[in-house]
Design goal:
The chain is mainly beta. The protein is built from two helices and nine strands, in the order βββββββββαα. The structure holds zinc ion (ZN) (2 copies).
């Protein structure tokens, strides 16, 4: 399966090492740490969000800022990266379609090992030379922090099922003729008042008299 066939929104399997791109703002060179366990450095930087960071209903807009506060530490097995990534995700309220934004603070804690072959865990991240690629890690962490059902507010009233206005913007909104929208079409079936007479003993649209024999019904 080539990269072009992979759906863009599917998280990349970390173990299938994609080549770390030095130019990616989420790839960090750890050469300066050396391989002496205990050496440590911190990175505080703001980088642009990669494309497709999110889920269908909400995500971090490509190019919007991600504030990284990281600690890179040489350990016996490789490099341990810990810290936080702060960003803003934007989506739509699932009830009323208003824009919703959510501040995300993802905790990062990832061990990048020197040599994947020595690890049984298939989910392990691997150092590529001296490079750590935080993008797959960030993807997994951010997706877990995103609301699957974003709401503009907890008790959003949604949209009027008849006319579609946003109910929170129109307190007390109602229609005089509270007709079930599925039956509303019947109200325009014909406009001859004479036809609105109901036979004695019948009521409502369910048993409205049908058209007379031979009469053409036009809708
Ligand atoms: Zn809403
Ligand atoms: Zn309405």
């Amino acid at each position: 399966m080539s990269a072009s066939q992979r759906p863009a929104d599917r998280p990349v399997d970390r173990h299938v090492a994609r080549p770390a791109d030095r130019r990616s703002p989420l790839v960090f060179d750890t050469r300066a740490l050396g391989r002496r366990a205990g050496a440590m450095t911190t990175v505080t930087t703001t980088v642009p969000a990669p494309a497709g960071l999110g889920i269908e209903v909400i995500g971090v807009p490509e190019g919007s800022p991600i504030e990284l506060d990281l600690r890179l530490e040489a350990v016996v097995e490789g490099v341990l990266v810990t810290g936080t990534a702060r960003m803003r995700a934007v989506g739509e309220c699932v009830r009323c379609l208003t824009e919703v934004s959510v501040d995300i603070e993802a905790d990062i804690q990832e061990l990048f090992v020197h040599d994947a072959a020595s690890e049984d865990d298939e989910e392990v991240s691997v150092l590529q030379g001296d490079l750590v690629d935080l993008e797959p890690v960030l993807r997994d962490d951010v997706v877990l922090d995103l609301p699957f059902q974003p709401l503009c507010r907890e008790d959003c009233a949604g949209l009027c099922p008849v006319c579609g206005v946003r109910l929170d913007d129109h307190p007390g909104h109602h229609h005089d003729d509270e007709v079930d929208p599925r039956w509303a079409a019947l109200g325009t079936w014909d406009d001859d008042p004479a036809d609105d007479r109901v036979e004695p003993g019948t009521a409502g649209p369910y048993n409205r008299p049908g058209p007379a024999q031979g009469e053409e019904v036009s809708r």
